[in-house]
Amino acid sequence: MEMTFRWYGASDPVTLEKIRQIPGVTGIVSAIYDIPVGEVWPVERIKQLKAEVEAAGLCLTTIESVPVHEDIKIGASSRDRLIANYAQTLKNLGACGIEVVCYNFMPVFDWTRSDLAFPLPDGSNALIYDQKTVLEMNPETGDLALPGWDASYTKEQMKGLLNTYKSIDKEQLWENLTYFLQGIIPAAEASGIKMAIHPDDPPWGIFGLPRIISNREDLLRLVKVVDSPANGITLCSGSLGVDPANDVPAMIREFGGMDRIHFAHCRNIKITGEKCFEESAHLSSAGSLDMFEILKAYHDVGFEGPMRPDHGRMIWGESGKPGYGLYDRALGAVYLNGLWEAICKLSS
To answer: Please, what is the end-to-end C-alpha distance for the chain in angstroms?
Structure first.
C-alpha cells in the first residue's frame, strides 16, 4: 500500500514541503487544473507536474482527476472527438509513468454538500449534507451555488444542461458510460494505466439527476460492461458509507478480490439521519464506519495500490480549501498508517 496525499498545485496552501513531513506519506495525488475539460493534456505539462512533485522528495503515480466532459455523459454529437482527446491524454500520462487515473461520471455536479463549515461540538468544523436543506434548493433559479458545483457554468448554461438531463434516465447514462469506457479502456491498457471510477457522492440522486455508481450492484455492472483489469474502482469509504445499505468492508473484499480496486479513499463519516451526514475525524469511534475493518479488508485482499486520507475537518483554527486542510488529513494519514502497521504485524 502506498500512502498518498491530495495536492491542488502551486496555489494550494498545503505545500509539498508540508506534505513531505507527514510520517509515512510518500505519494502525491494531483492533476493539471488549468487545461479546459475535454482538451488533451500535453506531455510537457505532465512532466512539469511530475518534476515539481519529485523535487520535493515525493512521487506522482496517481492522477485525480481527468474530468469527463458533460457532452460525453449526455451522449452529444461531439463525444467521439472528446473521447479521442481523453484517450490521447491517457497515452500521454502513461508515457510519463502515471499508473492510476481517477474520474467520475456524476451528471453536472461533483461531490455535493449543504454546508462547508458546519461547527462541531469540539470547536472544529466540517462538511455536512442535510437532505432537507438540499431539497429546498433549486439549481435552476436564483443565484444558487451548492458546494461541489462547477462554477464554470453560467446560470443559463446550467439551466440548459439540467433540461438536457431531463431526457436522460439511468439506463441512458449507463449506455453513455459504456460507450465512453469502450472508447478509452484500450488506450488505458496500451498505456499501462488503471482507470478508477469514483462513486457518486452522495450515493443517491439529487434534483432528479440520474446517478449510477452508488452501490455494490452498480460496481458489479461497471466491471462487467468492459471486462478489463484496466476498468476499475476508486473505492471511497466516505461516499459509499453514508448509505447504511452499503457494506464497505464486504465491497472491498469482493472487488479487491477481483483486483478491480485501483485507488482507495479512506475516510470516516457520521450518519446523522436519513440521507444526512457529517464528515468526521478518521478515527473509528468518531463516526459510523469501522476503519479497522475497512483497512483489514484491504490487507486481506493484498491491496498494493495508492491510498489516501480523504476529506478532513478544519481544526486548530486552520482555514483553506473546504475538506482539504492540512492538519486533520495529516492526522488521518498517520492513523491509517498506524492501523495498517498493526494489521500487518498481527497477520504475520
So the answer is: 16
Task: Tell me how far apart the alpha carbons of residues 13 and 18 are, in angstroms, rounded to a whole number.
Answer: 10
pTM: 0.94
State pLDDT tens for residues 184-235. 999 999 999 999 999 999 999 988 899 999 999 999 999 999 999 999 999 9
**275-318 pLDDT tens trace:** 999 999 999 999 999 999 999 999 999 999 999 999 999 999 99
Residue 102: beta bridge partners?
Answer: 64, 196
HSE-up of 191 (CA within 13 Å, CB side)? 25
Domain holding 32, by residue range, is: 2-347
Assign residue 302 the CATH number of its domain.
Answer: 3.20.20.150
**Which residue(s) pair with 128 in the sheet?**
115, 278
CA distances from 176 to 26, 107, 164, 212 (A): 36, 11, 14, 11
Catalytic residues: 198, 236, 265, 310-311, 324
Q: How many domains does the chain have?
A: 1
- Cα(292)–Cα(298) distance, integer angstroms: 10
Name the residue among 139, 165, 168, 166 with its Cα closest to residue 154. Answer: 139
